[in-house]
Write a structure and sequence with these properties.
- The chain starts with a helix and ends in a 9-residue tail after the last strand.
- The chain is elongated, with a radius of gyration of 19 Å.
- It has helices spanning 2-36, 39-44, 48-63, 66-69, 77-84, 87-94, 96-100; strands at residues 121-127, 130-135, 145-150, 154-160.
- Strands 1-2-3-4 form a 4-stranded antiparallel β-sheet.
- The chain has one domain.
- It is an alpha+beta fold and 169 residues long.
- Mean pLDDT is 79; it is low at 102-109.
- It is 49% helix and 15% strand.
């Protein structure tokens, strides 16, 4: 009886660890697909409808800003979204945070040499069904990724934080 209870607790702990780690696994798969620019693998890890709606809201807010409202036609949003949701556009969105990282943050030491390793990411649960992925040590929220639960074990990309105004771009 004690053996069964012990193995049950161990199995439950392993399942809980696997369940907790599923967004990390999904982010690694998304990152690998973006590096190889595998369109099918990217599509499997992106909720296109939710990502399109989220990016559309952000772009409409950007283009409604007083400094650009008179210069940009709002009809450009849909073609821009189509481009952003192509595999190359998603790869660019996933790399967005690196563009806004400070020069000091991209250096490995005082010698100024660039790192040869892949960037480190931090992943934080914001709810049961949502996690935020951000480049570790980044001060900017630009490029922050939101993964949302898709079923019990799977996660999909549903949001990428764009700059708050075009002056930052």
């Amino acid at each position: 009886m004690k053996k069964a209870l012990f193995f049950g607790i161990v199995a439950l702990a392993v399942l809980a660890g696997l369940f907790y780690g599923t967004p990390y696994f999904a982010m690694n798969q998304l990152r690998a697909a973006s590096i190889t620019q595998d369109a099918d693998a990217l599509a499997a890890h992106v909720d296109s409808n939710r990502l399109r709606a989220n990016l559309g809201r952000q772009l409409r807010a950007l283009f409604a800003a007083p400094e650009v409202a008179s210069d940009i036609n709002p009809d450009i949003v849909d073609p821009l979204l189509d481009t952003m949701l192509m595999p190359e556009g998603i790869v660019a969105l996933l790399k967005l945070n690196a563009h806004y990282e400070t020069a000091a943050g991209r250096r490995s030491d005082i010698s100024g040499l660039r790192r040869n390793t892949a960037p480190a990411y931090s992943l934080n649960y914001i709810s049961w069904n949502s996690v935020v992925v951000q480049r570790a040590h980044s001060k900017s929220r630009v490029g922050e990724l939101t993964l949302s639960r898709d079923g019990l074990w799977h996660w999909k990309l549903t949001s990428v934080a764009l700059p708050k105004n075009l002056a930052d771009a």
